[in-house]
Amino acid sequence: METATHRRALCAIIALCGLILLGSVADLRAGTLLSPGPGVLVRKSAEPFGVFAFAMSTGGLRQKWFALKDQLDDDMVQLALCDGDRDHCASPAALKLLAIVDQARTRDGRARLGETNRAVNLAIRAADDGADDVWSSPLATFARGAGDCEDYAIAKLAALRLAGVPAEDLRIVVVRDVRVGEDHAVVAARLDGHWLMLDNRRMAMVEDDNARTYQPLFVLYQAAVLKYVAEPVQFSMAIPEAH
Question: Where does 50-228 sit in CATH, by number?
Fold first, then answer.
């Protein structure tokens, strides 16, 4: 007759094998196994907010981002040309943005991110696009001198890239602000393994783990639009006692 001890040992072996298999899948999807406390393993994504995000192949947001990315690429070329020859730069908007980049380049690490966040927040007047919700390129936003949350985020993305922050350490994250019940966009910048939120609603930056009123919806990364799942996947390590 099988004893309770044998049954518990068998359950432990089965649970361990299942976790090994699931862990392999998690690694393939850029997740890692972290232990936040006794008895629980959480698959945590490398994306901001630590939640899994999956690539989207269709959808209005993807179309909007790819259309904007073409304009952003054009702006980056013009900004690079003006950066190399300020005296012959024909774009006042480019010179305004480059002045922010110049200040950011004098700083390192968190100070560089914070300087960019503060300067862009002060340079642009908050304005609602209305029902059209137009996503403007950085030069269009600085020429207008106004924009909504995604326009701030796009301008910060361009400024940070020009200031030397690697593109792979930058994201635009679309979130749901649960306090006011509306969607919002911020820049996420990775520094020393942590994601900092550059937000037009505040001068101070916070880590993603501390942005508790923001529910992540989408993440925009170079040539991809990813959709977040609702919650990280959790596995219980506890083995119930036999009765």
Answer: 3.10.620.30
